[in-house]
Amino acid sequence: MHEHVTDPYVKKAQQDSYRSRAAYKLLEIDKRERLLRPGMTVVDLGAAPGSWCQVAVQKMKQQGRVLAIDLLPMAPMPGVDSLEGDFTEPAALAWLEGKLQTGRVDLVLSDMAPNISGVMLRDQARHYELCELALDFAVNWLKPDGAFLVKVFQGVGFEDFRAQMRQSFEKVLIRKPDASRDRSTEVYLLGRNPIGSA
Ligand code: SAM
Predict the structure, then answer these.
(1) How many CB atoms are closer than 10 A to CB 100?
(2) Residue having the nearest C-alpha atom to atom 11 of ligand 1
(3) Any idea what the CATH number is for the domain that residue 90 is in?
(4) How far is CA 174 from CA 31, 42, 191, in A?
(5) Is the pTM of this model over 0.90?
(6) What distance in angstroms lies between residue 49's CA and the mean position of ligand 1's atoms?
(7) Count of domains in the chain?
(8) pLDDT tens by residue, the chain, 198 residues
(9) Which domain holds residue 167?
């Protein structure tokens, strides 16, 4: 609680009207990697409360669309189509497929994190199940020049997942934005140009 109250990014998010401090992680990665451009189709997995959606809509200058999914309800946002649902359930994939029809995706974002049980190995395993599902979706739906940004935690499962990313994308980068707390093992993997996508 003390960390939250004194965190400069929490204060800044309130001042800048972002729904959470997570906005600055995407802003920082985007500044370096130029992921977001007007006219894109973006899928945001684990989107609530919606600060990455806010960043995406702003950076796309209100041109383009964002499809967002979260277990939790999310307040509506112009330019964002959202589903309150579980990405691991077939209904969520069906919703995305229905929205996309035959169109492909420019950018898949996954900031999903399961509720922590406290049992480290179980939590890591559940997290990487989500990451693998998100990777599977990204590989199937991204355009040839598309990108996939996913939150992961270093430790058990990390190297295996990074290897899967390397098999799936021409280029894989690891990013630790300043807004990601130092003591957290959280990092982001960015895959660019899915292999075999035509
Ligand atoms: N990027 C968001 C933002 O900027 O506001 C913050 C995301 S928060 C760190 C992680 C989210 O992942 C939580 O809201 C949680 O409900 C969601 N989540 C976890 N498991 C999920 C699942 N199976 N399907 C959909 N969302 C999930």
Answers:
(1) 15
(2) 46
(3) 3.40.50.150
(4) 15, 20, 9
(5) yes
(6) 8
(7) 1
(8) 555 667 899 999 999 999 999 999 999 999 999 999 999 999 999 999 999 999 999 999 989 999 999 999 999 999 999 999 999 999 999 999 999 998 999 999 999 999 888 888 899 999 999 999 999 999 999 999 999 999 999 999 999 999 999 999 999 999 999 999 878 899 999 999 999 876
(9) 2-194
